[in-house]
Amino acid sequence: MSERKLAAETALIHGGLERSQFGETAEALYLTSGFVYESAEQAEARFKGEDDGFIYSRYGNPTVGLFEQRMAELEGTETCFATASGMAAVYSALTCQLKAGDHVVASQVLFGSCLQVITSILPRFGVEFTLVDGADLAAWEAAIRPNTALFFCESPANPTLALVDIAGVARLAKQADACFVVDNAFASPAVQNAKNLGADVVVYSATKHIDGQGRCLGGAVLCSNDFFKEKLQPFVRHAGPAMSPFNAWVLAKSLETLDLRVDRMSSTTAKIATALEAMPFTEKVSYPGLSSHPQFSLAQSQMKSGGSLLTLRVKGGKAEAFKFLNNLQIIKISNNLGDSKTLATHPATTTHRTLTGEDREICGITDNLLRLSIGLEAPDDLIADIERAGTSKT
Ligand SMILES: Cc1ncc(COP(=O)(O)O)c(C=O)c1O
Fold first, then answer.
1. CA of 134 to the centre of ligand 1 (A)
2. Where are the alpha helices (DSSP H) in the chain?
3. 185 in contact with ligand 1, CB cutoff 6 A
4. Tell me, which fold does domain 258-391 have in CATH?
5. What is the residue extent of each domain of the chain?
6. Whose alpha carbon is nearest atom 15 of ligand 1?
Protein backbone atom coordinates (compact mmCIF):
# COMPACT_ATOMS: atom_id res chain seq x y z
CA MET A 1 0.00 0.00 0.00
CA SER A 2 1.17 3.59 -0.70
CA GLU A 3 1.92 6.01 2.15
CA ARG A 4 -0.99 8.28 1.13
CA LYS A 5 -3.47 8.74 4.02
CA LEU A 6 -6.78 7.07 3.29
CA ALA A 7 -10.07 8.92 3.51
CA ALA A 8 -12.31 7.90 6.44
CA GLU A 9 -14.75 6.01 4.16
CA THR A 10 -11.91 3.88 2.81
CA ALA A 11 -10.29 3.36 6.20
CA LEU A 12 -13.62 2.15 7.60
CA ILE A 13 -13.78 -0.57 4.96
CA HIS A 14 -10.16 -1.73 4.89
CA GLY A 15 -8.65 -0.46 8.17
CA GLY A 16 -7.21 -3.03 10.57
CA LEU A 17 -8.01 -5.99 8.31
CA GLU A 18 -5.51 -8.84 8.68
CA ARG A 19 -6.64 -11.83 6.63
CA SER A 20 -6.20 -15.35 7.97
CA GLN A 21 -4.50 -18.14 5.99
CA PHE A 22 -7.83 -18.66 4.16
CA GLY A 23 -7.80 -15.27 2.46
CA GLU A 24 -11.43 -14.51 3.30
CA THR A 25 -12.98 -11.36 1.76
CA ALA A 26 -14.93 -10.25 4.83
CA GLU A 27 -13.36 -9.85 8.22
CA ALA A 28 -12.88 -13.08 10.21
CA LEU A 29 -14.60 -13.49 13.54
CA TYR A 30 -12.28 -14.68 16.33
CA LEU A 31 -14.88 -15.91 18.77
CA THR A 32 -12.47 -17.01 21.47
CA SER A 33 -12.12 -16.14 25.13
CA GLY A 34 -8.47 -17.19 25.46
CA PHE A 35 -5.26 -17.70 23.45
CA VAL A 36 -2.57 -20.39 23.54
CA TYR A 37 1.16 -19.77 23.87
CA GLU A 38 4.01 -21.56 22.12
CA SER A 39 5.91 -21.91 25.39
CA ALA A 40 5.78 -21.04 29.06
CA GLU A 41 8.43 -18.41 28.34
CA GLN A 42 6.18 -16.78 25.75
CA ALA A 43 3.25 -16.73 28.22
CA GLU A 44 5.50 -15.08 30.80
CA ALA A 45 6.73 -12.51 28.26
CA ARG A 46 3.16 -11.65 27.25
CA PHE A 47 2.15 -11.05 30.83
CA LYS A 48 5.25 -8.90 31.33
CA GLY A 49 4.29 -6.87 28.25
CA GLU A 50 7.53 -7.88 26.49
CA ASP A 51 5.80 -9.90 23.74
CA ASP A 52 3.00 -8.44 21.63
CA GLY A 53 0.04 -10.71 21.29
CA PHE A 54 -3.25 -11.53 22.88
CA ILE A 55 -3.65 -12.85 26.43
CA TYR A 56 -7.34 -13.03 27.17
CA SER A 57 -10.40 -11.45 25.51
CA ARG A 58 -11.16 -9.36 28.60
CA TYR A 59 -7.88 -7.56 27.78
CA GLY A 60 -8.12 -7.64 24.00
CA ASN A 61 -9.17 -9.78 21.04
CA PRO A 62 -8.33 -9.60 17.29
CA THR A 63 -11.94 -8.94 16.21
CA VAL A 64 -12.49 -6.38 18.96
CA GLY A 65 -9.13 -4.87 17.95
CA LEU A 66 -10.37 -4.46 14.39
CA PHE A 67 -13.41 -2.51 15.62
CA GLU A 68 -11.22 -0.44 17.94
CA GLN A 69 -8.78 0.42 15.16
CA ARG A 70 -11.59 1.56 12.85
CA MET A 71 -13.16 3.66 15.61
CA ALA A 72 -9.83 5.33 16.42
CA GLU A 73 -9.30 6.11 12.71
CA LEU A 74 -12.78 7.57 12.49
CA GLU A 75 -12.43 9.87 15.50
CA GLY A 76 -8.73 10.59 14.91
CA THR A 77 -7.61 9.47 18.37
CA GLU A 78 -4.49 7.46 19.15
CA THR A 79 -6.44 4.56 20.54
CA CYS A 80 -9.81 3.07 21.45
CA PHE A 81 -11.10 0.54 23.97
CA ALA A 82 -14.36 -1.18 23.05
CA THR A 83 -16.85 -1.92 25.80
CA ALA A 84 -19.91 -4.14 26.24
CA SER A 85 -22.33 -1.19 26.17
CA GLY A 86 -22.39 2.58 25.97
CA MET A 87 -22.85 2.81 29.72
CA ALA A 88 -19.80 0.58 30.25
CA ALA A 89 -17.87 3.13 28.16
CA VAL A 90 -19.19 6.11 30.15
CA TYR A 91 -18.62 4.40 33.50
CA SER A 92 -15.10 3.24 32.58
CA ALA A 93 -14.07 6.65 31.20
CA LEU A 94 -15.14 8.34 34.45
CA THR A 95 -14.25 5.76 37.07
CA CYS A 96 -10.81 4.92 35.69
CA GLN A 97 -9.59 8.43 36.56
CA LEU A 98 -11.69 9.68 39.50
CA LYS A 99 -10.94 9.22 43.19
CA ALA A 100 -12.63 10.20 46.46
CA GLY A 101 -12.48 13.97 46.94
CA ASP A 102 -12.58 14.79 43.21
CA HIS A 103 -15.25 17.06 41.77
CA VAL A 104 -17.10 16.62 38.45
CA VAL A 105 -18.86 19.38 36.50
CA ALA A 106 -21.50 18.10 34.07
CA SER A 107 -24.27 19.52 31.96
CA GLN A 108 -27.67 18.96 33.56
CA VAL A 109 -29.41 17.48 30.51
CA LEU A 110 -28.00 13.98 30.15
CA PHE A 111 -29.21 10.49 29.35
CA GLY A 112 -30.87 9.14 32.54
CA SER A 113 -28.18 6.51 33.22
CA CYS A 114 -25.31 9.02 32.73
CA LEU A 115 -27.05 11.25 35.24
CA GLN A 116 -27.42 8.33 37.68
CA VAL A 117 -23.69 7.55 37.46
CA ILE A 118 -22.73 11.16 38.24
CA THR A 119 -25.38 12.02 40.81
CA SER A 120 -25.89 8.74 42.61
CA ILE A 121 -23.19 6.11 41.97
CA LEU A 122 -19.96 8.16 42.02
CA PRO A 123 -20.94 10.13 45.16
CA ARG A 124 -21.05 6.79 47.03
CA PHE A 125 -17.28 6.68 46.45
CA GLY A 126 -16.73 10.27 47.59
CA VAL A 127 -16.87 12.03 44.20
CA GLU A 128 -18.64 15.41 44.30
CA PHE A 129 -20.54 16.94 41.40
CA THR A 130 -22.13 20.16 40.12
CA LEU A 131 -24.69 20.16 37.31
CA VAL A 132 -24.82 23.24 35.10
CA ASP A 133 -26.85 24.59 32.20
CA GLY A 134 -24.68 23.12 29.44
CA ALA A 135 -25.36 26.04 27.09
CA ASP A 136 -23.99 28.59 29.57
CA LEU A 137 -20.17 28.81 29.44
CA ALA A 138 -20.16 31.17 32.42
CA ALA A 139 -21.95 28.50 34.49
CA TRP A 140 -19.27 25.92 33.61
CA GLU A 141 -16.58 28.39 34.66
CA ALA A 142 -18.35 29.35 37.90
CA ALA A 143 -18.67 25.67 38.89
CA ILE A 144 -14.92 25.05 38.86
CA ARG A 145 -13.40 24.27 42.27
CA PRO A 146 -9.80 23.54 43.25
CA ASN A 147 -10.66 19.80 43.24
CA THR A 148 -12.44 19.80 39.84
CA ALA A 149 -10.96 16.85 37.98
CA LEU A 150 -13.43 16.17 35.19
CA PHE A 151 -15.95 17.86 32.88
CA PHE A 152 -18.67 15.75 31.24
CA CYS A 153 -21.34 16.51 28.65
CA GLU A 154 -23.49 15.17 25.84
CA SER A 155 -24.07 17.37 22.80
CA PRO A 156 -26.72 17.19 21.49
CA ALA A 157 -28.10 16.10 24.85
CA ASN A 158 -30.53 13.23 25.33
CA PRO A 159 -33.40 13.98 25.03
CA THR A 160 -33.82 17.74 24.59
CA LEU A 161 -31.18 18.23 21.85
CA ALA A 162 -29.69 21.15 23.78
CA LEU A 163 -26.12 21.76 22.62
CA VAL A 164 -22.90 22.42 24.49
CA ASP A 165 -20.16 24.58 22.96
CA ILE A 166 -17.63 21.76 23.03
CA ALA A 167 -14.63 23.91 22.03
CA GLY A 168 -15.58 26.54 24.65
CA VAL A 169 -15.91 23.98 27.46
CA ALA A 170 -12.67 22.32 26.32
CA ARG A 171 -10.84 25.63 26.82
CA LEU A 172 -12.25 25.95 30.35
CA ALA A 173 -11.35 22.34 31.16
CA LYS A 174 -7.79 22.97 30.05
CA GLN A 175 -7.53 26.08 32.24
CA ALA A 176 -8.85 24.05 35.20
CA ASP A 177 -6.53 21.15 34.37
CA ALA A 178 -9.59 18.89 34.23
CA CYS A 179 -10.18 16.00 31.82
CA PHE A 180 -13.04 16.74 29.40
CA VAL A 181 -15.11 13.65 28.54
CA VAL A 182 -17.73 14.02 25.79
CA ASP A 183 -20.48 11.47 25.17
CA ASN A 184 -20.90 11.88 21.41
CA ALA A 185 -23.53 9.14 21.00
CA PHE A 186 -26.43 11.39 20.02
CA ALA A 187 -24.54 13.06 17.19
CA SER A 188 -22.64 9.91 16.11
CA PRO A 189 -19.10 10.03 14.72
CA ALA A 190 -20.57 10.73 11.28
CA VAL A 191 -22.02 14.09 12.36
CA GLN A 192 -19.61 15.50 14.95
CA ASN A 193 -15.93 15.04 15.77
CA ALA A 194 -15.71 15.75 19.49
CA LYS A 195 -11.97 15.05 19.60
CA ASN A 196 -11.22 17.77 17.03
CA LEU A 197 -13.43 20.15 19.02
CA GLY A 198 -11.20 19.64 22.06
CA ALA A 199 -12.50 16.66 24.04
CA ASP A 200 -9.79 14.71 25.84
CA VAL A 201 -11.84 11.51 25.88
CA VAL A 202 -14.79 10.68 23.61
CA VAL A 203 -17.29 7.96 24.46
CA TYR A 204 -19.94 6.28 22.33
CA SER A 205 -22.84 3.97 22.75
CA ALA A 206 -22.13 1.85 19.65
CA THR A 207 -25.60 0.39 20.20
CA LYS A 208 -26.96 3.51 18.47
CA HIS A 209 -25.93 4.69 14.97
CA ILE A 210 -22.77 2.57 14.86
CA ASP A 211 -24.77 -0.67 14.88
CA GLY A 212 -27.71 1.21 13.45
CA GLN A 213 -29.78 -1.90 12.94
CA GLY A 214 -30.90 -2.66 16.49
CA ARG A 215 -28.90 -5.87 16.89
CA CYS A 216 -26.33 -5.59 19.63
CA LEU A 217 -25.02 -3.49 22.49
CA GLY A 218 -21.59 -1.92 22.42
CA GLY A 219 -19.56 1.08 23.45
CA ALA A 220 -16.21 2.74 22.85
CA VAL A 221 -13.79 4.94 24.78
CA LEU A 222 -11.50 6.96 22.48
CA CYS A 223 -8.41 8.56 23.97
CA SER A 224 -4.66 9.16 23.80
CA ASN A 225 -2.11 6.38 24.30
CA ASP A 226 -1.02 8.00 27.57
CA PHE A 227 -4.55 8.12 28.99
CA PHE A 228 -5.08 4.52 27.91
CA LYS A 229 -1.87 3.22 29.50
CA GLU A 230 -2.04 5.26 32.68
CA LYS A 231 -5.75 5.33 33.48
CA LEU A 232 -8.02 3.23 31.28
CA GLN A 233 -6.11 -0.01 30.75
CA PRO A 234 -5.35 -0.68 34.44
CA PHE A 235 -9.09 -0.17 35.15
CA VAL A 236 -10.71 -2.11 32.28
CA ARG A 237 -8.39 -5.13 32.51
CA HIS A 238 -9.63 -5.80 36.02
CA ALA A 239 -13.12 -4.28 36.06
CA GLY A 240 -13.94 -6.24 32.89
CA PRO A 241 -16.29 -4.12 30.73
CA ALA A 242 -14.90 -5.69 27.50
CA MET A 243 -16.92 -6.04 24.29
CA SER A 244 -17.82 -9.49 23.00
CA PRO A 245 -15.93 -10.43 19.78
CA PHE A 246 -19.25 -11.29 18.15
CA ASN A 247 -20.63 -7.80 18.82
CA ALA A 248 -17.32 -6.28 17.65
CA TRP A 249 -17.65 -8.15 14.35
CA VAL A 250 -21.22 -6.90 13.81
CA LEU A 251 -20.23 -3.35 14.72
CA ALA A 252 -17.05 -3.33 12.60
CA LYS A 253 -19.12 -4.37 9.56
CA SER A 254 -21.69 -1.68 10.39
CA LEU A 255 -19.01 1.01 10.35
CA GLU A 256 -18.63 0.33 6.59
CA THR A 257 -22.05 1.93 6.01
CA LEU A 258 -22.15 4.45 8.87
CA ASP A 259 -21.70 7.56 6.73
CA LEU A 260 -24.26 6.48 4.15
CA ARG A 261 -26.86 5.61 6.77
CA VAL A 262 -26.39 8.70 8.95
CA ASP A 263 -26.36 11.05 5.92
CA ARG A 264 -29.65 9.64 4.74
CA MET A 265 -31.18 9.64 8.24
CA SER A 266 -30.12 13.26 8.79
CA SER A 267 -31.58 14.49 5.50
CA THR A 268 -34.88 12.72 6.27
CA THR A 269 -34.89 14.20 9.79
CA ALA A 270 -34.46 17.71 8.37
CA LYS A 271 -37.47 17.13 6.06
CA ILE A 272 -39.59 15.78 8.92
CA ALA A 273 -38.61 18.61 11.27
CA THR A 274 -39.63 21.19 8.65
CA ALA A 275 -42.92 19.39 7.96
CA LEU A 276 -43.66 19.09 11.70
CA GLU A 277 -43.24 22.82 12.27
CA ALA A 278 -46.32 23.40 10.09
CA MET A 279 -48.53 20.66 11.58
CA PRO A 280 -51.51 21.75 13.69
CA PHE A 281 -50.79 19.53 16.71
CA THR A 282 -47.19 20.79 17.07
CA GLU A 283 -46.39 23.10 19.96
CA LYS A 284 -42.64 23.09 19.28
CA VAL A 285 -40.05 21.17 17.31
CA SER A 286 -36.42 21.08 18.36
CA TYR A 287 -33.85 20.06 15.77
CA PRO A 288 -30.28 21.42 15.60
CA GLY A 289 -30.59 21.64 11.81
CA LEU A 290 -33.54 24.06 11.96
CA SER A 291 -32.94 27.82 12.17
CA SER A 292 -35.53 27.88 14.99
CA HIS A 293 -33.16 25.88 17.26
CA PRO A 294 -31.84 28.39 19.84
CA GLN A 295 -28.26 27.22 19.19
CA PHE A 296 -28.53 26.92 15.41
CA SER A 297 -25.31 28.81 14.72
CA LEU A 298 -23.39 26.62 17.21
CA ALA A 299 -24.87 23.54 15.50
CA GLN A 300 -23.66 24.85 12.16
CA SER A 301 -20.15 25.35 13.48
CA GLN A 302 -19.69 22.07 15.35
CA MET A 303 -21.96 19.57 13.55
CA LYS A 304 -21.85 18.44 9.92
CA SER A 305 -25.67 18.20 9.86
CA GLY A 306 -28.55 18.37 12.32
CA GLY A 307 -28.32 14.63 12.98
CA SER A 308 -31.05 12.01 13.10
CA LEU A 309 -32.94 12.97 16.26
CA LEU A 310 -35.59 15.57 16.89
CA THR A 311 -37.98 16.36 19.67
CA LEU A 312 -41.61 17.25 19.27
CA ARG A 313 -43.76 18.92 21.92
CA VAL A 314 -47.37 18.17 21.08
CA LYS A 315 -50.10 20.60 22.11
CA GLY A 316 -51.48 19.31 25.43
CA GLY A 317 -49.84 17.02 27.98
CA LYS A 318 -49.12 13.37 28.67
CA ALA A 319 -52.50 12.16 27.34
CA GLU A 320 -51.97 13.88 23.97
CA ALA A 321 -48.37 12.61 23.78
CA PHE A 322 -49.49 9.03 24.47
CA LYS A 323 -52.36 9.36 21.95
CA PHE A 324 -49.82 10.43 19.31
CA LEU A 325 -47.54 7.46 20.10
CA ASN A 326 -50.40 4.97 20.13
CA ASN A 327 -51.66 6.15 16.74
CA LEU A 328 -48.32 5.70 14.96
CA GLN A 329 -48.25 2.78 12.54
CA ILE A 330 -44.87 2.70 10.77
CA ILE A 331 -42.94 4.41 13.55
CA LYS A 332 -42.45 2.14 16.56
CA ILE A 333 -42.49 3.03 20.25
CA SER A 334 -39.01 2.24 21.60
CA ASN A 335 -36.41 3.87 23.82
CA ASN A 336 -33.56 2.88 21.48
CA LEU A 337 -32.24 5.31 18.87
CA GLY A 338 -29.99 5.54 15.83
CA ASP A 339 -31.75 2.55 14.25
CA SER A 340 -32.73 2.05 10.61
CA LYS A 341 -36.30 1.84 11.95
CA THR A 342 -37.82 5.14 13.06
CA LEU A 343 -38.48 5.03 16.81
CA ALA A 344 -40.45 7.31 19.12
CA THR A 345 -40.23 7.59 22.87
CA HIS A 346 -41.78 9.55 25.74
CA PRO A 347 -38.69 10.43 27.85
CA ALA A 348 -40.59 11.59 30.96
CA THR A 349 -42.05 8.09 31.53
CA THR A 350 -39.15 5.98 30.18
CA THR A 351 -35.49 7.06 29.76
CA HIS A 352 -35.77 9.96 32.22
CA ARG A 353 -38.37 8.46 34.55
CA THR A 354 -35.97 8.34 37.54
CA LEU A 355 -35.50 12.13 37.61
CA THR A 356 -37.66 14.04 40.07
CA GLY A 357 -40.48 16.07 38.53
CA GLU A 358 -38.58 19.24 39.45
CA ASP A 359 -35.37 18.05 37.76
CA ARG A 360 -37.30 17.07 34.64
CA GLU A 361 -38.80 20.56 34.54
CA ILE A 362 -35.35 22.21 34.88
CA CYS A 363 -34.14 20.09 31.96
CA GLY A 364 -37.24 20.77 29.82
CA ILE A 365 -38.40 17.14 29.84
CA THR A 366 -42.07 18.00 29.88
CA ASP A 367 -45.00 15.59 29.71
CA ASN A 368 -45.77 16.64 26.13
CA LEU A 369 -42.20 15.99 24.91
CA LEU A 370 -41.58 13.17 22.44
CA ARG A 371 -38.22 12.12 21.03
CA LEU A 372 -38.08 10.81 17.48
CA SER A 373 -35.09 8.88 16.14
CA ILE A 374 -35.44 8.93 12.38
CA GLY A 375 -34.49 5.85 10.39
CA LEU A 376 -34.09 4.87 6.77
CA GLU A 377 -37.71 4.60 5.63
CA ALA A 378 -38.99 6.83 2.80
CA PRO A 379 -39.45 10.38 4.20
CA ASP A 380 -42.97 10.73 2.75
CA ASP A 381 -44.15 7.54 4.48
CA LEU A 382 -42.86 8.84 7.81
CA ILE A 383 -44.40 12.28 7.34
CA ALA A 384 -47.76 10.67 6.48
CA ASP A 385 -47.53 8.42 9.57
CA ILE A 386 -46.76 11.41 11.82
CA GLU A 387 -49.54 13.53 10.33
CA ARG A 388 -52.08 10.71 10.70
CA ALA A 389 -51.05 10.06 14.33
CA GLY A 390 -51.14 13.74 15.24
CA THR A 391 -54.50 14.50 13.66
CA SER A 392 -56.32 11.27 14.61
CA LYS A 393 -59.57 11.92 16.48
CA THR A 394 -59.33 8.78 18.66
C1 LIG B 1 -26.23 9.76 25.24
C2 LIG B 1 -26.21 8.31 25.64
N3 LIG B 1 -25.13 7.82 26.27
C4 LIG B 1 -25.07 6.53 26.66
C5 LIG B 1 -26.11 5.67 26.42
C6 LIG B 1 -26.01 4.26 26.89
O7 LIG B 1 -25.76 3.35 25.87
P8 LIG B 1 -26.04 1.80 26.01
O9 LIG B 1 -27.51 1.62 26.01
O10 LIG B 1 -25.34 1.21 24.81
O11 LIG B 1 -25.43 1.36 27.28
C12 LIG B 1 -27.25 6.13 25.77
C13 LIG B 1 -28.39 5.22 25.52
O14 LIG B 1 -29.45 5.64 25.10
C15 LIG B 1 -27.30 7.50 25.34
O16 LIG B 1 -28.37 8.01 24.72
1. 18
2. 8-14, 40-48, 62-75, 86-95, 112-116, 137-143, 166-175, 225-227, 233-239, 245-255, 258-277, 296-302, 318-327, 357-363, 379-391
3. yes
4. Aspartate Aminotransferase, domain 1 (3.90.1150)
5. 8-30+61-98+138-148+167-255, 258-391
6. 111
Q: What is the dihedral of CA 298, 301, 304, 305, to 10 degrees?
A: 40
Burial 34-57 (b: 16+ CB within 10 A, else e): ebeeeeeeebeebeeeeeeebbeb
Query: Is 347 close to ligand 1, i.e. is its CB under 6 Å away?
Result: no
**Top mutation candidate among 163, 183, 205 for ligand 1, by most atoms within 8 Å of CB:** 205
Q: Is the CB of 183 under 6 A from ligand 1?
A: yes
Cis peptide before 159 (omega within 30 of 0): yes
Nearest to 263 by CA among 383, 118, 376: 376
| 186 touches ligand 1 (CB under 6 Å) | yes
Q: What kind of architecture, by CATH, is found in domain 8-30+61-98+138-148+167-255? A: 3-Layer(aba) Sandwich (3.40)
CA of 360 to the centre of ligand 1 (A): 18
**Residues 247 and 218: beta-carbon distance below 8 Å:** yes
Give how far Cα 365 sits from Cα of 156, 159, 346, Å.
14, 8, 9
**Cα dihedral: 292, 294, 295, 300 (round 10):** 10
Q: Is 154 in the pocket of ligand 1 (CB under 6 A)?
A: yes
Closest ligand 1 atom number to CA of residue 336:
14
Q: How confident is the model at residue 359 (pLDDT cuts 50, 70, 90)?
A: confident
First CA to last CA distance, the chain: 63
Residue 86 phi/psi, 5-degree rounding, is -65, -40
DSSP state of 242: B
Percentage of the chain exceeding pLDDT 70: 99
Would the pTM of this model clear 0.90, i.e. be above it?
Answer: yes
Q: Is 207 near ligand 1, meaning CB less than 6 Å away?
A: yes
Q: Over the range 193-218, which residues count as b (16 or more CB within 10 Å of their CB) and which as e?
A: bbbebbbbbbbbbbbbbbbbebebbb
Q: How far is the CA of 94 from the centre of ligand 1 (A)?
A: 15
Q: Over the stretch 184-215, which tens digit does the pLDDT of each residue have? A: 999 999 999 999 999 999 999 999 999 999 99
The two most distant CA atoms of the chain are separated, in Å, by 75
